Amino acid sequence: MRRFRIVMEYDGSCFHGWQCQPKIKTVQGELEKALSLIANMPVIVHGSGRTDAGVHALAQVAHFDMHTRMNGSAIKKALNCLLPEGLAIHHCMEAGPAFHARFAARAKTYRYRILNRPLRPVLGRNYLWHVWQPLDRKAMDAAAAYLVGTHDFKSFEAAGSPRSHTVRTLYSVFFSDEPGIPDVFAFEVTGNGFLRYMVRNLAGTLIQVGRGKIKPESLPEILEGKKRELAGVTAPPQGLFLKAVHYDLNNDFRQPAMEIKPPPGIGMGGEGAG
């Protein structure tokens, strides 16, 4: 039995989320179906975490164990021949037996795309959130700064999905324009773990700051309150992308000109930010 690590991208609008569900098309389900055909026996795929329906991935990571003489390159080619549109494998490589896509992960980066203009989008509407009201970007930047560091993010956790604890560390939180794409900008966040819908709840809250509905200086109070109703709306899923999964705590996810000192030995501690 050999263990392989894969890195993939997918269009979330083509699937009902990551996790296998009976009679429903999911990313994990399509991967397991294709790998089981290649191996001629059942193969179970373990992802770095779940993404919900409509949420996309640029570099989702997973692993699986398989009896095969094929190398990673051959498995990648076979998978890309069998997988449906909307899902493609970038890399497939043999991993050590101790590697686990979820438990070995140390941080994730998510990117949430926003179109801010009065006219509704047509092309690309499945890959961003259209906000037609004017936004105060300076206020949004000021609010985002309060989120960096270790906090209890219970106010940003989806109702009905409690975790054993809701403390997470965000290493960087910032907004950036997308070059060459007018009126589109993105909210990007890297952290050691995320609660269910946490990124979408953060994005929705920061949009309400931009609209003047929430003051930037209210963010510490929202965090300390630990109540979902204190934060803003949940942003829709189609704007969210899992950008990267990080397996060591070097500075490959560091925001330029920002020093990050992540605490040692902290794992992901959560999933399903979408």
From TrEMBL:
Name of the molecule in the record: tRNA pseudouridine synthase A
Organism per entry: Desulfobotulus alkaliphilus
This protein's record includes keyword Protein biosynthesis: no
HAMAP family linked to this entry: TruA
Keywords: Isomerase, tRNA processing
Biological process annotations from GO: tRNA pseudouridine synthesis
Binding-site residues for substrate, renumbered to this chain: Y110
Active site: D52 (nucleophile)
An MF annotation (GO) of this entry: RNA binding
Catalytic activity field: uridine(38/39/40) in tRNA = pseudouridine(38/39/40) in tRNA
Function comment: Formation of pseudouridine at positions 38, 39 and 40 in the anticodon stem and loop of transfer RNAs.
Family annotation (Gene3D superfamilies): Pseudouridine synthase I, catalytic domain, C-terminal subdomain, Pseudouridine synthase I, catalytic domain, N-terminal subdomain
Family: Belongs to the tRNA pseudouridine synthase TruA family.
Entry keyword annotation includes tRNA processing: yes
Domain Pseudouridine synthase I TruA alpha/beta: 7-103, 143-248
